[in-house]
Write a structure and sequence with these properties.
about 725 residues, Endonuclease, Chain A, polyphosphate kinase like, 10-stranded mixed beta sheet, 8-stranded mixed beta sheet, 27 strands
Length: about 725
Amino acid sequence: MLDTPDPRPEAEQAEPTLDAEALAQSPDRYTNRELSWLAFNERVLAEASNPNYPLIERVRFLSISGNNLDEFLTVRVAGLAGQVRRQIEEISIDGLTPSQQLSAIHEEVLRLETVQQSTWLDLKEQLAEAGIRVIGDERLDHGGEKWLKDYFLEHIMPVITPQAIDPAHPFPFVANAGIGVLFSLTRLADDAPVMEMVLIPHALPRYVRVPGEDAVYISIEDLICRHAGQLFPGFKTNGHGVFRVLRDSDIEIEEDAEDLVRYYRTAIQRRRRGLVIVLQLQGKFDPAAEDLLRSQLGLDKALVIKTGGLIGIAGLSALCDEDRPDLKFEPYSPRYPERVLEHDGDIFAAMREKDMVVHHPYETFEVVIDFLKQAAADPDVVAIKQTLYRAGKQSAVISALIAAAEAGKSVTAVVELKARFDEEQNLLWAGQLERAGVQVIYGFVDWKTHAKVSMVVRREGDGYRIYCHFGTGNYHPLTARIYTDLSYFTADPKIGRDAGALFNFITGYVEPKRTECLSISPISLRSTLNEAIAAEVANAEKGKPAAIWAKMNSLTDPDLIDELYAAGRAGVEILLVVRGICCLKAGIPGFSENITVKSIIGRFLEHSRIWAFANGAVMPNRRAKVYITSADGMSRNLDRRVELLVPIRNKTVHDQVLGQVLLANLLDNEQSWLLEPDDTYERVAADGETFNCHSYFMTNPSLSGRGASLASGRRVPKLSLRRGHI
């Protein structure tokens, strides 16, 4: 068994508020999903103050926290506000009504926004010291002021449209994430008060850089306010206020949608005009102007945030483009799997030799692209089947599928229209694929197809052989550079047959009676996990080693959480790496003391999903049952999505996933946060030797992709979990 005692001093260990049996029946055994997400985003925000990171990377973390919060407000909070408006009293996992959740969320959002503003003030000062200034109304030298004026007159003024707000001019529509400025003016000709609004088009840059060796930036709203005299000649400016609007951005599926493509085309348009969820106000707003906004925007259950600082924190990402390598992470070039290179780049030959896992972003996503490119160009390949959830705006995957179809191969693409915020892009890809002759399938109306699988059928000898790629992440070349994910390549005939059954299920609703290896959600994935957990409980009751390791992005499903609680109380040691939302409460004496939860936030976004079960032997061991999956521990993944759970049985791949990827995550003590019994997260304090899992993977080759040439001389350091590591 792994020896992982509670790392907290005895004085800090919480006493149970209820006995185990009472807690097992109480909503108090869960953490609220929305508040857990806000805690996750606070961990992201904390990295903006991490002195171990370069300055611009800290700004990037602040920007990410702002973007995360925007999406949370426009989807999750919008959903709760909608329930309150429709008087839907749906109780949360922890027993709260929508109104109670909204109240708690609003309080936390306001607190988080205050931390964001103070963090920005600190970073802004440090940027200035490093030669990057962000100005507001501060004056520049003559050359700088002239450039700003000329830029405004030539590039900004022709684009913006000031609009008087009076009975003759109806209040304009403010788009989602739209920023505007309200000016309080006096017309000099007759001393009449006038209110004018300027909406800032999304096409304009969020920040403008003044040319010169010293970097000087100004936000677009400050640039407009700075030149109000040019914009409103003949008027006196009494004051102005900047505002920003966030709208409901979720899309609800109607059960009777006859044409899913047509439905989504219109739904995307409706989303742009969703109800206002948040109104952000900056500066000293004229009371009359604020009242006007509140009345015209129809703020029903909306959150109003007033700040003297910056609105639109996400926009700070523009500063990260500054060419200052000394203030950024050292560039990293991912490796190409050496074992493929040993086969002269022939991925199919490498797969025929044995299975292989590629660990992104440490190993390049190009190997996945090359798999499809080679399939498209190979005269012996007769068919390609591919799921597409998020493919990005410039996708080599799409290009490879089009090339394969144009080469006369049978190509089927399952394009998921319900991928949030990628619906429009996926519609565009679907159109291009169809025009090239690809058979495009949109999957199920009620379920998202979230499984990541590519299947290639190749003519070999007297028959056909199936080559498969399974991923824990999307076929997205950009996110593959920053998301940690696993790509599993296999030519196992059993898995190939299961992959074919999966596609038949999606394209023709032909539910497989049984599968040989794969577990498919919503058919059998949940039951496979439950059976594996039950087996660990049985081993614990027999006095055998019993442990569960898992890594995922979110854990919110109450039934799965209860299974883990029961396993922990039965003596199963459970170690979980949950990056984001976790509704499970860990470390409660007498209830969940055998469960440890940690979250890793660092240079790369942890995204791979892995489950491992001790199977009656000391971990890590080769008897352990190991799986990779596209599914998180959420009800939607287990019950309302098409997902895959893939067993890892090849010896080398098994060792890599269990003894390298999973173990390194557990060993990390530089980027890790530990979940405490009171639902708070504390940064893990390294005691002595430090270990950074991202640095480890950046400097060590993977086990299954390293090739025979690395069998000696460059061995992968063996990892082991010792007392006090977690």
